C-alpha cells in the first residue's frame, strides 16, 4: 500500500508508536525542535538512525507531528540520497563514483561486488548481510578510489582489496567485523594506478 493510499487511514502502528522506544527517539527530536516544520530533515535523520530506514507508517507519523502534507515528507525522503525507504543490510558498502574514483577503477569495484554478491547498487543481499550503494562524491579524492564499509572510509582500493575486505566483514560476527574494518583504515591500501 502506498503512502497516498494511507492518507485516509491512520497508521496501523499507532499503538506501537506509544510504546516503541525508537518512536520515543523521534519524539525527542520533534520536541527539541518545537515541532517546527523546517526541522523535517533532522527528524528524518533521527528516524532513519532509530529504525534503519523510513517506512510509510513512520513518514506518516512524522508528517502528522510536523503538520506537513505526507507528500512533502515523502518527497524530501526520496529526494535526498541519504534516506532509504527499504531495510538495509547488516553491513553497508558505499562506493564513490566521483570523477577521481571513477578514473581509478571504481566501476570495476562495483562490478566485482555485483558479481560476487549478486546485487546492484541500491540493493541488499537476500540474506540481509550486505547493502551496496554508490555516491556521487565522498570528498576524499586524494584517496581515490574510495569506498565506505560500515561508516569506515577506505582509500586507494582495488577490486581485489575491496572484495577481500567485504568478504571478511560479511563473514565475521557483527562485533568483530567493525573492529577489522577499523584497523584496516589506519593505512590505506596502495593499489596500482591505471
Describe the structure.
- This protein has ten helices and five strands, in the order ααααααβααββββαα.
- The chain is of the alpha+beta class and 194 residues long.
- The chain has two domains: 10-79; 91-184, Glutaredoxin.
- Strands 2-3-1-4-5 form a five-stranded mixed beta sheet, with helices on one face.
- β4 (147-149) and β5 (152-154) form a beta hairpin.
- The longest helix is centred in the last third of the chain and has 13 residues, at 159-171.
- The N and C termini lie far apart (48 Å).
Short description:
The protein is built from 10 helices and 5 strands, in the order H-H-H-H-H-H-E-H-H-E-E-E-E-H-H. It has helices at residues 3-6, 14-19, 21-32, 40-51, 56-66, 70-79, 99-103, 106-117, 159-171, 174-184; strands at residues 91-96, 123-124, 130-135, 147-149, 152-154.
Amino acid at each position: 500500500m502506498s503512502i497516498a493510499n494511507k492518507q485516509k487511514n491512520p497508521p496501523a502502528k499507532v499503538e506501537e508508536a506509544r510504546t516503541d522506544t525508537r518512536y520515543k527517539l523521534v519524539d525527542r527530536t520533534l520536541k527539541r525542535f518545537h515541532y517546527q516544520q523546517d526541522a523535517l530533515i533532522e527528524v528524518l535523520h533521527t528516524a532513519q538512525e532509530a529504525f534503519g530506514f523510513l517506512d510509510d507508517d513512520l513518514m506518516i507519523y512524522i508528517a502528522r507531528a510536523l503538520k506537513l502534507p505526507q507528500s512533502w515528507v515523502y518527497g524530501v525522503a526520496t529526494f535526498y540520497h541519504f534516506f532509504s525507504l527499504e531495510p538495509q543490510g547488516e553491513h553497508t558498502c558505499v562506493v564513490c563514483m566521483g570523477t577521481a574514483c571513477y578514473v581509478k577503477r571504481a566501476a570495476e569495484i562495483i562490478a566485482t561486488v555485483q558479481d560476487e554478491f549478486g546485487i546492484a547498487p541500491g540493493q541488499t543481499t537476500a540474506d540481509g548481510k550486505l547493502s551496496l550503494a554508490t555516491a556521487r562524491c565522498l570528498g576524499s579524492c586524494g584517496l581515490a578510489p574510495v569506498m565506505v564499509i560500515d561508516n569506515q572510509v577506505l582509500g586507494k582500493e582495488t577490486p581485489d582489496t575491496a572484495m577481500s575486505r567485504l568478504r571478511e566483514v560479511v563473514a565475521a560476527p557483527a562485533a568483530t567485523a567493525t573492529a577489522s574494518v577499523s584497523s584496516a583504515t589506519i593505512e590505506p591500501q596502495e593499489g596500482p594506478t591505471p
